[in-house]
Amino acid sequence: MEETKSEIAREVLAQEASGNITSKDKTLITGLNSDNNMKRRTDYRPVPPKIRPLFKVHKLSEAKIKDKVIPPQRFINAAKHGPLYKLGQRSSPHLTKISKSYCGEEFLLDTPHLLKKVEEYNMAPQEGNVLLATLDVEALYPSINPDLAIEAMRHAFESDNTTTGGIKEALLKFTELSFKRSCVTFRDNIYKSKIGIPTAHFWIKFGSWELGKEINFLDITLYLDGSNRIQYKLYTKPTDALNYPRTDSFHPNHVFNSVAFSQMLRVANRNSREETRQSDLQQLKSDLHRSGHDMAKFDNLEVKVREQSSSSSATTVEETAHPKTNIVFPVQYFLELPQLKAVLRDIESDIEVLLGPTKIVTASKKGRSIGNKILRNSSICRSPIEGSSNWVQSCNAPRCLTCKHMRKAGDVFVVILIRSRTANVVAYNIL
Length: 431
Fold this sequence. Notes:
This protein is an alpha+beta fold. It has four domains: 2-107 and 144-192, no CATH class; 244-321; 323-365; 370-429, no CATH class. It is built from 13 helices and 16 strands. It has helices at residues 2-17, 23-30, 62-66, 85-103, 111-122, 146-158, 165-181, 253-269, 274-290, 298-321, 337-346, 348-355, 370-376, and strands spanning 50-55, 73-78, 132-137, 183-186, 189-192, 206-212, 214-217, 220-224, 230-234, 325-332, 358-365, 381-384, 391-393, 408-409, 412-419, 422-429. The strands form six sheets. Strands 12, 13, 14, 15 and 16 form a five-stranded mixed β-sheet that branches. Strands 7-8-9 form a three-stranded antiparallel β-sheet. The longest helix has 24 residues, at 298-321. The protein is globular and about 60 Å long. The two termini are 49 Å apart.
């Protein structure tokens, strides 16, 4: 892993020297500052990427779950914070922008993106004998021949005018490096791909295809009505056992309400007609009740789901026709912030009269929380200063009884605050 980290640093420094990437890009990828000194942040200390089995419990019936049958599984790659993670994180936005430009109208991101295109088509449906078609791939994330991937990237770069040539050259080098250095660990063994990109199969294998007035695509069923408008409803795989986390499990209570609400919202958004929406909601309520959920709470959740679903639908149609301009109010968090938001909502119509379609955004920043620092800031505790009994702390709490590194000096706690590379010693009396 250290070899991979060093090779990434060498390549990034070479691209910076060539002017293909900025010093900021170098820092975000490698953690090296303008003086090429490594930052101390823990997210720049890579961990080995792992593959873990994802157990598909939803494919088991209730009887099989009670009999403790081992569910089918597939391996997933947990590469977050691996040596190649920052490299891919910085390259991905550029590649996504180029892909959208290259694919044009053929680019499809996910189900909400598809439904947005369906709504656009339904504004002016075609006449005559219209058919729907879909082509399935056997593996969702198939491996691709690395040489073909690089060739496809070069072809896309030739017709792209959204990204500079230097960044394109860096993207090619970074992608080649990712293909070369990608590896995973499993049960303390390191595995490196021998053929293709290590995700699934070496080739893309097409499976079933459909052509007609009704097809299944992703998690929805698309079908044509009498006016050639595309309607849709939720699609569930036949192998789905429709199991959800049981309420007698050890999950926090808020998880159960979140699962119920998110699944009901998904059903509402995946149906274009009320009759299919009601049918799918009733089926979902039954499945959730079978997992231990109380039927009495579903009515309140359904009201919230319908309010949010109708609001998001209206916003989507309105934004498609008239894109809005954002007006951002940056404010420090304070207790009366909800009242301020209410006032801004009340005058939003007046602002639109003056400025046109406008969306008001309140960007609030909460004050410092020592609790957050203790729990989430892994750099809170530093080593003692050489030749001194004082400890370097990155928090400014007067005294933190949960920090085992706080040193008592007489009758005071001594805290050294590090700000802009200058150390200020502050002493707090013990109460």
